């Protein structure tokens, strides 16, 4: 029969229960045993829910307390030396993910370790912890999560399909530990494979019939050596085990990368949302017994599936393979989707048409079951569901909510001059130096300051109508006044207003733009326990009116120092939203760029000397395959310039990028033509800095000196070492001093201490190089 399957589920819980439990454990409010009970209850509820939705292959092992790649590293003993003295496995795990700073006590030594490096997971907004490998790496299998979770589900009489991160993806996405720059991590494959085989045998012994081995690295541009590693890995696994293996590739097209491993697995999963053309390419490569898992339901977005088109694609697979060799699945894990539309009461009340177009994880599992039923028993067996789906698809196609002719006309008729600033950087810098009069090594922050409980409570009261607009405005002004005063007292040079009025760097602006709507519970994990609630772009985008002018002008009135206006760039506004899929991304981004251009011009007219337009998602949005890069970079860079090119020479344009390994697109970063670029740097050693010297980056740069995703406070000495490396690669007169990213998620005590140390670094280096 056709099998309804799933690759993964939103492990954070229906209403972020996991986040709350993990953070309670971090703060000492609950014990490790209580944390375990909490996450096992969430797991149980998710397994039962998927079973009730008709999913036959329910995933287990996809659940994590922080990150699945970090889980994999710890369970295989890939523990960098700096964490090995932490003997409690759970504390060690979290220390690797977020750092740990504990003072010495009468019975314990001081602990002060930073987190491991964090990178974007392919082209998603999820971040994973990068494993660190040494040439003499020793692997040990300890407490495998997949076995534990499979047994937990089995005890509940729920049969699941264990999920593990595959060996080649694990090694290929990892990095050589510091001091081993030329070390090929894939050379460790023969050492780690025996442990993978041991893990698979444990799962088989526990009773698992299938195991899902996630190998998303198959969608990358791979050299022949990595393709050979895939073949070697699965040939070895196949010879040593008898459990059914399903290798899952997602986020793009596999092309020829998969050919070598196909003969050695029992099934293959393809992302047919991103690459539907690959169905025809893969069918001739399968033998007479292999299964094909069809990724037909979009695991990355929130729009309803076109069931008729999915069924048509499924019927083609059945014609070639037969029903017994076809699985129906989402394109990737549903962990990248919100939990359920059933919580969206406001949209249901105010815009029921929009709600009819949405499907979150729970609804997507139902879509999978409907498609599987239609393929197994014929479309007539689910005709009511198909009719309702067809009506919603047509409603969206013809709705007046999705199209604004004036917006589209403006986007088509943009003057050529609007895409570029009229003068080059050298002329602009001369005007900016004269106007701003900044010292050597100017200090600033990336924008946001801690979102305290008081701020969150006031916002909630205002949104509920329990606090008047006047009282809320007075509260926000009080917060801004305190933040500006703090920055002056600590000695920063270019200030920010601190963003107390902003719940999120994308959602805040979405509320001020046409074409956006917002969920109540549309949370997805970004990293660790950090969740984001992306807004929904469902229609053409334009500005309702000035978005940031009033608060920025007020903050500037509180200080004689220059203050930055803070905006989120067009690519990030699009990429960090659930973006419409009925219009090319280039067109959506252009509409947003025009709206932001109007805001930038208004800020300059209001006297704001510096304007920061953040684009942390520009590298993340880069297509996975290099063949697709040029077209994307052309329009994404163009949209940034469109948003920032309407100002005079003396107005300084900043941009920020975090956790972006952008060496490969460095020329495009130059083409953004920002006056000051700030980047994540504190955990990236020197690899992000070297290219600035090699390419002779012409503009100013602020490589971050401390990791804002960790609660630890780095010392002056630690930051000085980092900045000493910075000025090896960046001309001193072009170097800024700042944190890695915004400080929204941090507490005030650590923020104050870290920024005081940062300003002291600037003071010492100015004295040295004055």
Automatic annotation (TrEMBL):
Pathway noted in the entry: Amino-acid biosynthesis; L-methionine biosynthesis via de novo pathway; L-methionine from L-homocysteine (MetE route): step 1/1
Residues annotated as the enzyme's active site: 709
CDD domains xref list: CIMS_C_terminal_like (cd03311), CIMS_N_terminal_like (cd03312)
Residues covered by the Cobalamin-independent methionine synthase MetE C-terminal/archaeal domain: 441-763
Entry keyword Transferase: yes
GO MF term (any one): 5-methyltetrahydropteroyltriglutamate-homocysteine S-methyltransferase activity
GO biological process, one term: methionine biosynthetic process
Stretches assigned to the Cobalamin-independent methionine synthase MetE N-terminal domain: 4-314
Uppermost EC category: transferase
Pfam family, one: Meth_synt_2
Keyword Zinc annotated: yes
HAMAP family from the UniProt entry: Meth_synth (MF_00172)
Function field: Catalyzes the transfer of a methyl group from 5-methyltetrahydrofolate to homocysteine resulting in methionine formation.
Membership in a protein family: Belongs to the vitamin-B12 independent methionine synthase family.
Name the UniProt record assigns to this protein: 5-methyltetrahydropteroyltriglutamate--homocysteine S-methyltransferase
The species this protein was found in: Parasitella parasitica
């Amino acid at each position: 029969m056709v099998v309804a399957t799933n690759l993964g589920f939103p492990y954070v819980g229906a209403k972020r229960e996991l986040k709350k439990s993990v953070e309670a454990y971090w703060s000492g409010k609950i014990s490790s045993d209580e944390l375990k009970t909490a996450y096992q209850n969430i797991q149980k509820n998710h397994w039962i829910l998927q079973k009730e939705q008709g999913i036959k292959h329910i995933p287990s092992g996809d659940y994590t307390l922080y990150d699945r790649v970090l889980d994999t590293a710890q369970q295989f003993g890939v523990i960098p030396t700096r964490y090995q003295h932490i003997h409690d496995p759970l504390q060690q795990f979290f220390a690797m993910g977020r750092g740990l700073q504990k003072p010495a006590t009468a019975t314990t030594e001081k602990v002060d370790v930073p987190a491991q490096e964090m990178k974007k997971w392919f082209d998603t907004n999820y971040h994973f912890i990068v494993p660190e490998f040494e040439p003499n790496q020793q692997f040990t299998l300890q407490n495998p999560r997949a076995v534990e979770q499979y047994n937990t589900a089995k005890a509940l009489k729920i049969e699941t399909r264990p999920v593990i991160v595959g060996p080649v993806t694990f090694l290929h996405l990892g990095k050589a530990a510091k001091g081993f720059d030329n070390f090929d991590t894939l050379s460790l494959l023969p050492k780690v494979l025996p442990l993978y085989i041991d893990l698979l045998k444990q799962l088989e012994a526990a009773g698992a019939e299938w195991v899902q081995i996630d190998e998303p690295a198959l969608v990358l541009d791979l050299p022949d050596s990595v393709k050979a590693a895939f073949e070697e890995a699965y040939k070895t696994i196949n010879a040593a085990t008898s459990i059914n293996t399903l290798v899952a590739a997602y986020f793009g097209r596999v092309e020829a990368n998969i050919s070598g491993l196909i003969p050695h697995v029992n099934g293959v999963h393809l992302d047919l949302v991103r690459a539907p053309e690959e169905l025809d390419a893969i069918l001739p490569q399968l033998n007479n017994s292999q299964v094909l898992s069809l990724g037909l339901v979009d695991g990355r977005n929130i729009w309803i599936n076109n069931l008729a088109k999915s069924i048509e694609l499924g019927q083609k697979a059945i014609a070639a393979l037969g029903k017994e060799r076809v699985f129906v699945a989402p394109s990737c894990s549903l962990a990248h989707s919100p939990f359920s539309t059933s919580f969206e009461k406001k949209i249901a009340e105010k815009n029921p048409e929009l709600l009819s177009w949405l499907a979150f994880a729970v609804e997507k599992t139902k879509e999978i079951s409907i498609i599987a039923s239609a393929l197994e028993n014929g479309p007539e067996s689910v005709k009511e569901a198909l009719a309702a789906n067809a009506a919603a698809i047509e409603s969206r196609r013809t709705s007046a909510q999705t199209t604004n002719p004036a917006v589209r006309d403006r986007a088509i008729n943009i003057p050529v001059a609007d895409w570029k600033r009229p003068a080059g950087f050298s002329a602009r810098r001369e005007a900016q130096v004269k106007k701003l009069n900044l010292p050597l090594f100017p200090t600033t922050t990336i924008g946001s300051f801690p979102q305290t409980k008081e701020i969150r409570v006031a916002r909630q009261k205002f949104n509920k109508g329990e606090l008047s607009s006047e009282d809320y405005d007075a509260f926000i002004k009080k917060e801004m006044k305190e933040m500006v005063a703090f920055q002056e007292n600590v000695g920063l040079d270019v200030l920010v207003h601190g963003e107390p009025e902003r719940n999120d760097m994308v959602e805040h602006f979405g509320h001020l733009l046409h074409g956006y709507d917002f969920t109540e519970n549309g949370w997805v994990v970004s990293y660790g326990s950090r969740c984001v609630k992306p807004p929904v772009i469902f229609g053409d985008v334009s500005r309702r009116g000035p978005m940031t002018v009033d608060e920025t002008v007020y903050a500037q009135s509180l200080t004689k120092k220059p203050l930055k206006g803070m905006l989120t760039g067009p690519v990030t506004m699009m990429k960090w939203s659930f973006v419409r899929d009925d219009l090319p991304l280039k067109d959506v981004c252009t509409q947003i760029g025009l709206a932001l251009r109007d805001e930038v011009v208004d800020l300059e007219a209001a006297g704001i000397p510096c304007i920061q337009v953040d684009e942390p998602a520009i590298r993340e949005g880069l297509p996975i395959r290099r063949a697709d890069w040029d077209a994307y970079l052309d329009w994404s860079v163009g949209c940034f310039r469109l948003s920032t090119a309407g100002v005079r020479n003396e107005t300084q344009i900043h941009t920020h990028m975090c956790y972006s390994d952008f060496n490969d697109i460095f020329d495009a970063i130059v083409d953004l033509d920002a006056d000051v670029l700030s980047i994540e740097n504190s955990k990236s050693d020197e690899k992000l800095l070297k290219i600035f010297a090699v390419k002779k980056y012409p503009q100013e740069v602020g490589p971050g000196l401390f990791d804002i995703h960790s609660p630890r406070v780095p010392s002056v000495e630690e930051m000085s070492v980092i900045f000493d490396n910075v000025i090896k690669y960046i001309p001193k007169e072009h170097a800024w001093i700042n944190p890695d990213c915004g400080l929204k998620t941090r507490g005030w005590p650590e923020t104050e201490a870290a920024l005081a140390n940062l300003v002291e670094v600037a003071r010492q280096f100015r004295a040295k190089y004055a």
